[in-house]
Amino acid sequence: MKTKPILTILTAAALCAGCEGNGPNTQNGAVTGGALGALAGGIIGNNSGGHNALGGALLGGVIGAIAGGTIGNSVDHQNSTLYRSEGEATTNVAVPAIPPPPPPPSEMQTAQPTPSALWIYGYYDYDGYNYNWVPGHWEIPPPNAVAFVRPHWRYRGGAYVYVRGYWR
Predict the structure, then answer these.
(1) What global pTM score does this model have?
(2) Distance CA 40, CA 60 (A)
(3) Distance (Å, rounded) from C-alpha 75 to C-alpha 23?
(4) Cβ proximity of 3 and 54 under 8 Å
(5) What is the tens place of the pLDDT at every residue in 52-106?
(6) For residue 84, what pLDDT is reported?
(7) How far apart (Å, rounded) are the C-alpha atoms in residues 133 and 98?
């Protein structure tokens, strides 16, 4: 296997990362699928006549990440974890004062992978205990959605509640 086709595939996969949708199963599926695909691809590549474990691992990782992300995205749609309104995205995290997030890391916007993809700027997601950085990425909006509303805090009933990012 030649290096140039592998780099082309990896570049395309990197540009499309996150294009499947916005939900926890999509992200977890892509990571798990990528790891399992890399393992399987490495074994197959090593056992093939050319003994190309690295090429097989890279190709398997890309294919596994795409397949895992697609399956995870399907689960997100079935479980309604792709938020479409502030009401759906509102969490049970309520605090008397908003905890300050750490400063955001610097990031660069990559080339748009498709004309329908929208750039989602990086943001901190709050899990009730810590802020976790979600890097900027391209996403293809769900049907009938035109904008991504960034995660934010909303004052309700004497406390601040955390609202996850959602599409509207």
Answers:
(1) 0.47
(2) 7
(3) 9
(4) no
(5) 777 766 776 667 666 666 666 555 544 545 788 888 888 988 988 998 888 888 8
(6) 86
(7) 17
Q: What is the mean pLDDT of the chain?
A: 76
**What b/e sequence results for 16-36 when a residue is b if at least 16 CB atoms lie within 10 Å of its CB, and e otherwise?**
bbbbbbbbebbbebbebbbeb
Query: CA torsion sign, 21 to 22 to 28 to 30?
Result: positive
Extents of the domains making up the chain: 3-79, 86-167
Tokens 């798990």 found at: 32
